[in-house]
Amino acid sequence: MLASALTTRAAFLIDDAGIIVTWNHGCEHLFGISKADIADRPAHSLLTQASGDAFQRHWASLKSSSDSLAIDVDLAVADGAVRQAELTLSPQHGLDGAFTACVAMFALQRHSSGGEMIGSMPLRSIINVLPGTFYVLRNDSTFALWNKALETVTGFSTDDVHRAHAGDMFDLTEQAKIADKIRHVFERGEQVFVEANLLNKQDGKGTPYLLTGARIECKGEHYLCGMGLDISLRHQQEQQLRLRERALHAASNGIVITRCSGRDNPIEYVNPAFERITGYRLDEAIGRDSRFMAAPGMDSEARALLRRAIDERREVHVTFRNQRKDGVLFWNDLTITPVADEKGRITHFIGVINDITALKQRTALLEHEVHHDALTGLANRTLLWDRLDQAIHMAQRNKTLVATVLMDLNGFKKINDTLGHEAGDEVLTVVANRLLSSVRDSDTVARLSGDEFVLVLVNQPSLRFTLRMVERLRNCMIRPVVFGTHQIAVGAAIGVSVYPHDGATAFELVRAADVAMYHAKATRKSDVHFFSQEMKTTSDAKRLVENGMRAAVDRDELFLVFQPKISLRTGRISGFEALLRWHHPEQGVLLPSSFLPEAEENGMIVPFGNVVLQHTCAFLQRLAKAGFGQLPVSINVSQREYARGRYVDNVADTLARFGIAPSSLDVEVREDGLVTNHLRGAELLAQLSDLGVLRSVDAFGNGLSDLNYLQQLPLSHVKLAKMAVHQISAETHCGIIAKSLIDIGHNMNLTVIAECVETRAQMNFLKSNNCDEMQGIYYKEPLSADAAEQLLRACAAA
């Protein structure tokens, strides 16, 4: 409860010069100054600076007026406090009408707690509980009234505010704006609103406020009455909204916001990325349901899933095709998320669009590359097995036949050797196109490897129908292929197997067609052979051989012998060549010529080659322990071995495991294998060179040499072909081919080795023509590891 108000009246007399003449006890009580001490003081000294200035302005006009004047002033009382009061000035005139004095009276309304009041209302108590700043400004922008909130936000003390002008509470950049608004209030009576930062004089920081002002009139004077509200939180929210808006505009993903309103959900916002992706501007999309971009008749399942999620007000992620404004289709990866209001009701959906058209195209391209041959574009081995499996399942349901056709081109190696690989590639491409044009869209044409093609002919109603299709395939191969000025004759051996007669699985059908094709190839003409049970016997025999080879690896039936290499300059042993033998449980010891061609064909050459590498490294380890670690040992490597990849890694791992220096191993690669695949051969030799392994070309001169290619390879040795050595005549001591090859090898800065030397005449010719090394039965038959070590010890002792 507020105590009752008491009114205090203090009166005093002022002469015509504005000097206090005397005053009553009320003044003594109010100011704490006795009557005797107050004499001769100017009246305006009782007031604050601002109120004193206002008093003096009114005093000048009062001297010429007979009317009393009441003004609101701030008193500077004895206790240092500032009190607000109403000052009434009553002018006094003599008989002649001249101004002689003025009776002044202060009217203070005080509460028992010390707070000023207007009438019976506790004004200061009221304004101090307002949520923002409150102020009353005079015409000169000084403060007539304010609340504590203004002092708090500006850091001004009460005295500071008494002395301050409104502009003092703002930054220099905003003072002109504030002064202009105040002037508009006083001059035009306008109500104004302005946003500005109230500065805190303690730390210099500004607080954003929304300030208001309106003109009021009190006792003939105009004042500006206003309030200020702290809008810091609103500013933060606006900054966050602006940040989010900039983020939406900067996002690379298309963003669309729709209103949740039933069947149609009209668009309310799209960002620039949406405009870029779809081609539709914001004004063209607003108000429309996003379905207007749908591609008719496409991706119905994904769209149904999207519609169910929207109806159920839940998040969903779908991918489907839409149409851009120009009609071009694009793949849209879309995520829809519902947005709830403060009451939990779904009011909007936000969609994030990713244009994944390029990704889809790249994926499709990669899938095509994974499942298709790079040169011809035909299905590759992986896709072939998949298509053949599908064809068998379909034939089972429909009770139809499936024909598997395997074709191998005639004389393809000769085309590559005589006309080059460009001609070979042209032949393969033309044949692929002819085969595609000779079958139905439902059939499959695949390239297995090299010049081998496989066709899957589905839904064959009868063998007669199949025979007509195969005959059409054979006829398309008869026409020659034109390459430059050459007309290349093309033919093929064709083998055919039919489901379900010749096999129940894809593997069985391809194997049966392969057997039939080899029978056709044996005729040495372009012929067609259907698989028969008689052929199965041959196929079974091949399978038995392959199984025997696997057993040979498992039972350690393979072993090596080592043929010495002799330096023709010194006559000393310069190294060995490792040669493979098979201790067959039934046929005894087999030479490589009796089993390696079959191993090349069935793929067993790879595990055989690994056995050779392991045993050779074991032999090198043995030589090193015996003190002959400087002698290298060479091994022969098949193209099928190094074409599988990771061959050099396997060599490096094996050498490291046995602790063998790479320079102790010499890898021999046949010349025809290098020429067949330039890129793979160059890559292999470069990797071996980096590893530090010696590199040799075997059977040099056995075929058509590509000398430009060979001289670019990182080789260390060449080994003359057996044919070149055996042409050295004992009678004439002439070997033109051998001499030419030796000269070519030396011109390429390579060590030249002659193999299969069987006579003294051959050795003498090679030596006289500067051949570097030789090997053959003229010096030594291949030796066991024990015999090779004994030979080295004997040579060392001699």
Automatic annotation (TrEMBL):
Taxonomic lineage: Bacteria, Pseudomonadati, Pseudomonadota, Betaproteobacteria, Burkholderiales
PAS domain sequence ranges: 12-41, 119-189, 240-313
SUPFAM superfamilies: EAL domain-like, Nucleotide cyclase, PYP-like sensor domain (PAS domain)
Protein name: Bifunctional diguanylate cyclase/phosphodiesterase
PANTHER family reported for this sequence: BIOFILM ARCHITECTURE MAINTENANCE PROTEIN MBAA, DIGUANYLATE CYCLASE DGCP
GO biological process: regulation of DNA-templated transcription
Segments forming domain EAL: 542-796
Organism: Massilia eurypsychrophila
Pfam families: EAL, GGDEF, PAS, PAS_4, PAS_9
